[in-house]
């Protein structure tokens, strides 16, 4: 089973690397149309079907910590960061079954199960590639286009992250600037408030995330006070 999931996962990883490489992708398409006497549009359709089916399978599998325990977690984090970075130039994430949307389910599963995995390595690697910032920015940019199921999954993942003891001791390293903190706070308006308006009883489930919003607000106030102190010092010198 481990080898099977690793194989499926690496297929997706390699596929997206290939897809985003325009020159390599076109060369492969040209070769395939000649070899199989097919059209590029037909091959494109088959590629989309492959990504949707395998992406859905992985999304459902990653809900279970037992599956994630079989995976190369650093590679999964790298894949998430790569997809999110590649979306910077996109105007839409496309179909909800494509990786550009499904990647946030993967992120949510990673955060939800971090403490049952190699927690310190997972958090360190996520911090190194700025995974939290990337995921938050991606969600905020396309929030209106994402399905409700994804929003609940993301809120659950972020709440688990906020409740993670290792994260609590080093959370500021994940937000190296006031802008990063401010962007995260936008989730209160764009993510949690709409969820709670629809399902008020979910407040208990995402309480750690709601409390974390308050932690960030206090931190921003301190940042502002420090900045004002520096300005006063300069003015008085």
Q: What features would you highlight for this structure?
A:
237 residues; mainly alpha; 12 helices
Folded structure, characterized:
77% of the residues lie in helices and 0% in strands. The protein is mainly alpha-helical and 237 residues long. Residues 231-237 have low confidence and may be disordered.
What is the subunit organization of this protein?
single chain
Task: Give the low-pLDDT segments.
Answer: 231-237
Strand content: under 5%
Largest sheet: none
Order of helices and strands: HHHHHHHHHHHH
Specify the helix fraction band: over 70%
Task: Record the SSE blueprint.
Layout: H1 2-20, H2 22-35, H3 40-61, H4 65-68, H5 73-86, H6 99-113, H7 119-128, H8 131-142, H9 148-162, H10 165-170, H11 178-198, H12 207-236
Overview in brief:
By secondary structure, the chain is an all-alpha fold. The chain has helices at residues 2-20, 22-35, 40-61, 65-68, 73-86, 99-113, 119-128, 131-142, 148-162, 165-170, 178-198, 207-236.
């Amino acid at each position: 089973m481990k080898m099977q999931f690793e194989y499926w996962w690496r297929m997706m990883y390699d596929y997206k690397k290939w897809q985003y490489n325009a020159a390599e992708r076109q060369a492969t398409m040209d070769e395939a149309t000649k070899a199989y006497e097919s059209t590029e549009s037909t091959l494109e359709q088959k590629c989309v079907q492959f990504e949707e089916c395998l992406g859905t399978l992985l999304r459902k599998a990653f809900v279970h910590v037992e599956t994630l325990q079989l995976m190369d977690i650093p590679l999964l984090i790298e894949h998430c960061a790569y997809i999110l970075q590649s979306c910077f130039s996109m105007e839409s994430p496309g179909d909800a079954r494509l990786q550009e949307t499904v990647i946030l389910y993967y992120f949510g599963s990673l955060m939800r199960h971090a403490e049952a995995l190699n927690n310190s390595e997972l958090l360190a690697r996520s911090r190194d590639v700025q995974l939290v910032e990337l995921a938050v920015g991606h969600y905020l940019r396309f929030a209106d286009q994402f399905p409700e199921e994804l929003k609940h999954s993301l809120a659950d993942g972020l709440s688990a992250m906020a409740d993670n003891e290792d994260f609590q001791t080093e959370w500021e390293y994940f937000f190296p600037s006031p802008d990063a903190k401010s962007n995260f706070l936008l989730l209160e308006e764009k993510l949690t408030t709409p969820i709670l308006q629809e399902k008020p009883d979910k407040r208990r489930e995402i309480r750690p995330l709601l409390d974390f919003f308050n932690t960030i607000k206090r931190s921003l106030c301190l940042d502002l006070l420090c900045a004002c102190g520096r300005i006063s010092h300069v003015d008085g010198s």
